[in-house]
Structure to design on (228 residues):
């Protein structure tokens, strides 16, 4: 039973097209995050959410927007995809409780051609 | 600002060798958490350990052990008697403990264990 799922798992899109990645959780965690993973950079935070309709920018937010209309869903949109946004995208969830930790989705491999 | 440095980009060992992955962190918080994650070739991120800043005891879990030293701001990870299945990218990460705190990652160390 995966508490967090990402869709799609793989996507190839053309430069200039909008793309939306979805993250869905069943853990009722307050905090949700989008990271991107690139060689030599580790994982870098794009955007995060601390509640429904409460979102903020991370360190690499240019060209991305997010929305969270329900606790369980966190959407990442590439407004006009560029080749520099080819990456692996990870969603994560966390909660500030005694089991504090971060759970990651399986990742979405996005290729912009 | 918080920062995590994993200076070892790639390490190659032969099976049964011991190997230590280094992690050095920077933070101004007095309370914080340190993590290690494993990313096998399949790509998922596997949680290995969480350590809070008030607990400096070393931890051992099977062939894995962790050495946390606040004096040197290090949280090193040792694999004893490495196995081919240990081949992966290992990430060290840091977060604070007040309100919302993002997880800051190091750049990762790729471990290659050959038979």
């Amino acid at each position: 039973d995966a508490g967090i799922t990402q869709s799609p798992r793989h996507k190839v899109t053309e430069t200039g097209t909008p793309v939306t990645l979805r993250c869905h959780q069943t853990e009722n965690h307050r905090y949700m995050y989008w990271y991107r993973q690139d060689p030599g950079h580790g994982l870098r935070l794009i955007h995060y959410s601390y509640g429904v309709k409460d979102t903020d920018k991370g360190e690499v937010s240019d060209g991305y927007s997010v929305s969270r209309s329900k606790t369980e869903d966190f959407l990442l949109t590439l407004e006009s995809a560029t080749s520099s946004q080819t990456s692996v995208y990870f969603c994560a969830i966390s909660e500030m409780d005694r089991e504090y930790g971060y759970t990651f989705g399986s990742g979405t491999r996005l290729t912009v051609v | 600002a918080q920062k995590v440095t994993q200076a070892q980009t790639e390490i190659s060992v032969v099976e049964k060798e011991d190997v230590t992955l280094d992690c050095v962190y920077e933070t101004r918080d007095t309370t914080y958490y340190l993590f290690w994650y494993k990313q096998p070739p399949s790509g998922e991120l596997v949680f290995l350990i969480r350590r809070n800043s008030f607990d400096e005891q070393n931890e051992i879990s099977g062939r894995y052990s962790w050495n946390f030293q606040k004096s040197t701001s290090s949280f090193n990870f040792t694999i004893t008697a490495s196995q081919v299945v240990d081949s992966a990218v290992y990430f060290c990460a840091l977060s604070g403990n007040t309100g919302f705190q993002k997880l800051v990652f190091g750049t990762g160390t790729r471990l290659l264990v050959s038979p």
In short: The CA atoms of residues 65 and 78 of chain B lie 5 Å apart. Chain B touches chain A at residues 6, 33, 35, 37, 43-45, 47, 50, 91, 95, 99-100, 102-108 (CB under 8 Å). The two ends of chain B are 41 Å apart (CA to CA).
